[in-house]
Amino acid sequence: MTISQHAKKRCQQRGISPDLVLLLNALGMETQQKGNTYVLELDKHTQKALCKKLKRLLTQVQKDVFVVISEDDHVITTAHKH
Q: Whole-model pTM?
C-alpha cells in the first residue's frame, strides 16, 4: 500500500496516525464505492475486541520480553528478561 501526498496531508490535519492506516488495511472491512474504490473501516464489535486486545498487549509490552527466532524464521521460545 502506498499513501498519496494528499492522504498524508489529511492524516496530519486530522490527527490520524499512519500506523492506524496500516491497521485498517490489515483488519478493516471493505465497503465498495463507485469509481472502483472502497472504504476500510472497523465495525463496532471489531473496535471493542481490538481495544481489549491492545490493552492486554500494552501491559505485556511494558514488561521486558524477548523472542528467540531460528534462521528459518521460526519462533523457538519466548521469555521475560530478569
A: 0.69
